[in-house]
Amino acid sequence: MMSTSRRGFSRRQFLGGSAFALAAGTLGMPFIRTARAQAPTFKVGVITSLSGDNILGGNLTKRGYDLWVDAINAKGGVEVGGDRCKVEMFYGDDQSSPATGADAAERLIVQNEVDVLFGPYTSGSTIAVQPICQKYQVPMISGSAESPNVWKAQPEFNFGIIPAVDTTAGKSLAVLAKMSNPTAKTISVIGVNEPFSKETGEGFRDGAKEAGLNLVAYELVPAEGDLTPVISKIAALKPDIVAVGGHEEPLINLVKTSKSLDFRPKALIMHYGVTDPAFAQALAADANGTCGVAVWLPSVPYKDDLFGTAKEFAEMAQKKSGHEPDYTEAACAASGLVLGDAIKRLGKKPALKPGDRVALKDAIAETDIHTFYGPIKFERKGDHYHDNIQPVPVLIQIQDGKTVAVGPKEAAAAALTYPLPTWK
Amino acid sequence: MDLFLQTLLNGLLIGGVIATFTIGFQLTFGVLHVIDFAVGGWVVLGGYLAYYMAAELGLDGFLAIPVAFVLFGMIGYLIGPVLYNVRNSRTARPELMALALTFGLFTLLRGGMLTAWGFNTHSVPTALSGESLSIGPVTVPLIRVAAAAFAASIAGGLFVFLYRTRYGLAIRATAESRQNAALMGVNIRRLSANVYGLYAGITAMAGVLMGAIYSVNPEVGLRYTLFAFFVAVLAGLGSVGGALVAALLLGVIEAFVSTYVGSSYSLLAIFGTLFLVLLVSPRGILQRGL
């Protein structure tokens, strides 16, 4: 019979060895963590959609946050009392599900011991994470959430860089209606039935009255549903403008379905998604003429010390990812500027104690800075509590595959194409 | 009346679109007795193949249809025996093991697509994309007509294959009783590989059409899996003919509820129908399998 030693490993030895290695690894972990905690590094947790339906937007937010951390670490880190402390990022995937987002936030706070959080891509996940921030008293800066419901509950520890959609959708619609020639009279609104998209639809619906438009249909559609029935229904009503609240995939499907039914309104306005270059790439020439709303463009006349001008920021982002950044990516990068400014004023080095995190929250609330993204100052009361509603929305339109500002007049870089030509 | 006719057409075409990726799913269940969670993965892979051929090679998306059948049919042929072994293993609950295997396969396909093509949403251009025909008051989207015709021809072709050929007889015999079929000399393992290959090929071809009608990204696969499952349950698991009828029924319900009640109630109506059919006729609307 062959001895165990000559065979190399017996099963018992293998299992014993594995158990030892596992135990050694587990026992060793606290030492690794202690060693890391001693370094003067701020730990920032990022919760976003790295898988699931919102993976595109999730990666977009991640790119924005990463642009800031790369830029600030290249300068030696964030400024604290004359020194500089580097920033380390920890990522949590919400899998495009709010409940998973809340779990990811708790894991980042408890296991990774992050000092501060950068918020998710979707408003739904942001709302789900807010109670976790409150429970552990960890501030969260959201570079993407646009739903007004995120701010209505007056979250103490959450701050938003992008103005809520109810402050932008209606204004842009009014600009479109005012610029239309012949003047648009009727509108149909479609909203995909999930928090952000639905509230965008509501923003358009409520804004229609102020814009002097007659609302002939308001439809909420499930994200998984086929769009032919709703488009046929709306086509029969012949509205001048169709306004849509949704993310990129349903928006792309909507344009394709409209074309396959040979329906084209005089103007098609969407909110988020149009500004992402992937929208124009997927639809090619069919994307031309689609209007959207942006709170930032590379052409805005703003600048700061870290990123330089908006144009320089856009060039940097383009160089890194190969895509021109949209306003969400810019707002996520600007989240870091808010954090850096608040830490500088707080003057506390990492790791932040619970009391320091509350003080950091207060420092963030006091933010009043000018960045490449524009002015950032958070509301202190009302329905937009802790949201930055400073940026002025710009009406954009895709022309020859490029996103150009068409309104209001003072921001316009090109004339609005209205009415849109028919498909055939 | 115009809107009624348009809605009816929309509903039938939605049904035709759903049927394209449900027929193969039913065949697999009928023969292998496996609920293939990976169905959505095969659909999206077909879409990506067409996108790749259009974007990188400048070819029309439709040219990807035969390529998808051959390529993914071969891959399915290789995976089939693995699935067969798991499904017929002596472990406890092999049906759950097989379900877990297909779930793992789906996750692998999704992750692979994410790595290969990234997270952006793409579209598949074809000669019929965006083209329509006006017949009186009704607008007929040609790409959807092509998808419905595809579903009908696949269902018809499978019917002829299953009921008019000796190999089809062997497949039906295997679906009815694997043991008896094996005793009659049917090589069950090879037959399972062939059926899974046929299914993967058909489903990937359907994916080319899905990419042309809707759009392609790695995350939409789950949606197709769920719809295939709903239709299969409504049709009666394993019933190829029932899949066509059930898909058309769901499509028409979705279209009429969306148009005349409200789009937000369309999924409620679909689930309500599914629930009622299961309550009244648990074996599905046609009450028979393969």
Automatic annotation (TrEMBL), chain A:
PROSITE patterns: TAT (PS51318)
Domain of life: Bacteria
Keyword Transport: yes
Signal peptide: none
Pfam families, per the entry: Peripla_BP_6 (PF13458)
UniProt xrefs under Gene3D superfamilies: 3.40.50.2300
InterPro entries, alphabetized: BCAA_transport, Leu-bd, Peripla_BP_I, TAT_signal
Keywords per UniProt: Amino-acid transport, Signal, Transport
Any one biological process term the GO annotation gives: amino acid transport
Span of domain Leucine-binding protein: 42-390
Stored PANTHER family: ABC TRANSPORTER SUBSTRATE-BINDING PROTEIN (PTHR30483:SF37), LEUCINE-SPECIFIC-BINDING PROTEIN (PTHR30483)
Family label: Belongs to the leucine-binding protein family.
Protein name (record): Amino acid/amide ABC transporter substrate-binding protein (HAAT family)
Organism the protein comes from: Mycoplana dimorpha
Lineage: Bacteria, Pseudomonadati, Pseudomonadota, Alphaproteobacteria, Hyphomicrobiales
TrEMBL record, chain B:
GO cellular component: plasma membrane
Primary location recorded for the protein, binned into one broad class: membrane
Entry keyword Zinc-finger: no
Location in or out of the cell: Cell membrane
CDD domains according to UniProt: TM_PBP1_LivH_like (cd06582)
Residue intervals passing through the bilayer: 12-32, 37-55, 61-84, 96-119, 139-163, 193-214, 226-253, 265-286
Pfam families linked to this entry: BPD_transp_2
GO biological process, any: amino acid transport
Keywords of the record: Amino-acid transport, Cell membrane, Membrane, Transmembrane, Transmembrane helix, Transport
GO MF, any single term: transmembrane transporter activity
Topology relative to the membrane: Multi-pass membrane protein
InterPro entries: ABC_transp_permease, BCAA_transport_permease
Family designation: Belongs to the binding-protein-dependent transport system permease family. LivHM subfamily.
Designated name of the protein: Amino acid/amide ABC transporter membrane protein 1 (HAAT family)
